[in-house]
Write a structure and sequence with these properties.
This protein has helices at about 65-70, 95-100, 120-130, 135-150, 165-175, 195-210, 225-230, 245-250, 255-270, and strands at about 25-35, 40-50, 55-60, 80-85, 90, 105-110, 185, 215-220, 230-235, 240-245. By secondary structure, the chain is of the alpha/beta class. Strand 4 and strand 5 form a beta hairpin. The longest helix has 18 residues, at about 195-210.
Amino acid sequence: MIDIDQTEAAQQRVTGGATPPPDDIVVDLRDIEKAFGTKHVLRGVDVSLRRGTSAVVLGGSGTGKSVLIKHIVGLLAPDAGEVWVLGDRVDLLNGDDLDRKRLHIGYLFQAGALLDSMTVHQNMRFFLDRHTTLSEAEKNDEVTQVLEAVNLPDKADQYPAELSGGQRKRIGLARALILKPEIILYDEPTTGLDPVSVRVVSDLIIKLRDERGISSIAITHDLLAAEIITDRAHFLADGVIVAEGTLDEVRHADHPATREFFLGTEAYRAT
């Protein structure tokens, strides 16, 4: 068993005087605003994630999707609004408190962010060595189990450069899983992959939801992936959520940005 946090449960909730979301809401972004200089990227965004579900944030390039999910792990702080994660306001956390909260959140970066100088096994062990007190044998068992979870148990001794694009994505997902997070954030998890690999990665996301109860938020342009993984979809345009609901409801939303996105994406898929 990985015990990464003995103290957080005993700590007082960080609320800033605001009302926490219900216990079944693991992420609650409330009226988030973010600007970089004179460029206003987010203008009051609300997104909630229910425990054990998979949410998707859709939208055109440059609309602020990555900016939005970076607030969840405190990589960015909002100019206004509240960022609730697992009962605490991440926008009010710092230092050790923020680091402890991050251990409950896995993050699959768009490019995988694997350490090229390390083997797959060493990439997995890096986080176990830093954040757990497991024995050597226990750490090796955890690595074996997580590689089996992504169907790549035979890649432990290979380097990232020796893997295909789809394999690197799955190893990146394995690394996001190694500390057994409650939430995983996916930044374009299928970008650059062929349709077969898109389905493999997307099916893994659903497997983690169904078998491990992991809640997730993915940002993606890939409709095939979205069709597989979406429980609830949110469409970001002009700095706000202009449509949300099932993927089909968002697809048929009466908004110029959603119509342009779905018509353009589906036309591209048909070529």
